[in-house]
Each structure stands twice: as C-alpha cells, then as structure tokens.
C-alpha cells in the first residue's frame, strides 16, 4: 500500500465482514469480488504483482463491489449507479493532496467522475499507473508504426491498423478477424516487412 493509505483500508475491513486474498498474477483481471454464499464469507482478491498505486485502486474498486453487495445489492448491475457511488465515496479520502503522486491523483480524480469496469481501459489513468511498474520486457502496440506486423505469445499474428477513439483496430492474419487493442497492450514486434493488402 502507498504510504499513508493503509489506515482507511484497515478501518473499512474492520467494519465489513470481507476477506482479502492476495492472488497470483492473472492475465485476465487485476482483482475480483466473490459474494461467498450461505457458508462462505465474501472475498476480495487482488493480484500480488501490481505496483502499490494499481494495487490500491484495484482494491478500492473491489471494496465498492463488496459494499454494494453487503448493503443488499445482490441484484444490482455490477458497475451501475450504486457501485459508482460507493466507489466514489470509498476513493474520496485517497484523492487528497500528497497521498498519491500528482499524475496518478489527477488521472484517478478524472476517472472517478464516471468510473468504469476497469481502470486499464482508461488510458490516462493506465498510463499514469504504468509509470510505477517495473521495466517491461515487451513492446507497447502504440510504439509500432501503422501496418507493422506483431504477434502475441499464443502465436497469432496481427497487422496494426488505424487508431479509433481509444484503441487500435488490428487484423489477425491467423483467422482474418478484426480485434481492438488498448494502446498499452504488450505485443511482440515481428521483424518482417510491413503488411500490404
């Protein structure tokens, strides 16, 4: 946890019957909330490999899910109005000056005006958080030229296409389908000629 941020989180867990589990790295998600059931306590999990600021923001996101669920919101939309209200309320103390690096605080504050299902989809926030990640082994798709070829670890090959509003439209050469990639997606550049149709 970032310095100065532990106490509000500790207080929240002391007032809510929810388990916190630090999880192994998962490719598909940074964290999650599980409601438990008749015999199990609700549980939040957050990936262990996140930098302290990504960890905090992911944890707050999941705490909002838990709070809505515990308040009787079992049938609420997962990222609907009640969740957004809970997330804003839980996040408010962390937006004070001095707790977070200024770039993270400003991006997180802007994101909290209308928080979404994932902080990684919000490019300004994801970029601010990525500054505190360890050095990457891969290349970001945003660093490639248009029509450049790239691959993924699963062996699929793609051509980088145009940037839409937030994401790059890319053609998969393996199955001829179109996929959208976040500018922060890590890819494997292929040292071949650019693709021409």
Report on this model:
- The chain is an alpha+beta fold.
- Helices cover 29% and strands 20% of the residues.
- It is built from five helices and nine strands.
- It has helices spanning 6-15, 52-70, 81-91, 102-111, 123-130; strands at residues 19-23, 31-34, 43-47, 139-140, 149-151, 157-163, 168-172, 178-181, 186-189.
- Strand 6 and strand 7 form a beta hairpin.
- Helix 2 crosses helix 3 (81-91) and helix 4 runs antiparallel to helix 5 (123-130).
- The model has no long low-confidence stretch (mean pLDDT 89).
Treating each run of at least 4 consecutive H or I residues as one helix, how many helices?
Answer: 5
Query: Structurally, how many domains make up the residues?
Result: 2
Characterize the biggest β-sheet. Answer: 6 strands, antiparallel
Stated plainly, the CATH topology of the largest domain is called: Zincin-like
Summarize model confidence as the mean pLDDT: 89
- What Rg is obtained from the alpha carbons, in whole angstroms? 19 Å
Assigned CATH architecture of the largest domain: 2-Layer Sandwich
Share of helix, binned: 25-40%
CATH class of the largest domain: Alpha Beta
Order of helices and strands: HEEEHHHHEEEEEE
Low-confidence runs of at least 5 consecutive residues = none
- N-to-C CA distance: 49 Å
Question: Which geometry do the CA atoms define?
Answer: globular
Class derived from helix and strand content: alpha+beta
């Amino acid at each position: 946890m970032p310095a100065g941020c532990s106490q509000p989180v500790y207080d929240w867990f002391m007032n809510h019957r929810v388990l916190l589990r630090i999880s192994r790295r998962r490719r598909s998600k940074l964290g999650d909330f599980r409601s438990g059931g008749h015999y199990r306590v609700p549980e939040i999990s957050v990936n262990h490999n996140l930098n302290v600021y990504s960890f905090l923001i992911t944890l707050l996101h999941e705490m909002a899910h838990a709070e809505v669920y515990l308040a009787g919101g079992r049938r609420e939309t997962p990222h609907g109005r009640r969740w957004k209200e809970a997330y804003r309320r839980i996040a408010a103390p962390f937006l004070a000056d001095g707790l977070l690096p200024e770039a993270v605080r400003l991006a997180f504050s802007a994101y909290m005006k209308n928080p979404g299902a994932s902080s990684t989809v919000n490019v300004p926030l994801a970029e601010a958080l990525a500054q505190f990640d360890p050095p990457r082994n891969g290349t970001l798709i945003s660093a490639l030229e248009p029509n450049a070829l790239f691959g993924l670890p699963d062996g699929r090959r793609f051509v980088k296409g145009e940037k839409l509003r937030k994401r790059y439209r890319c053609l998969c050469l393996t199955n001829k389908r179109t996929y959208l990639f976040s500018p922060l997606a890590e890819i494997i550049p292929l040292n071949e000629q650019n693709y021409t149709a």
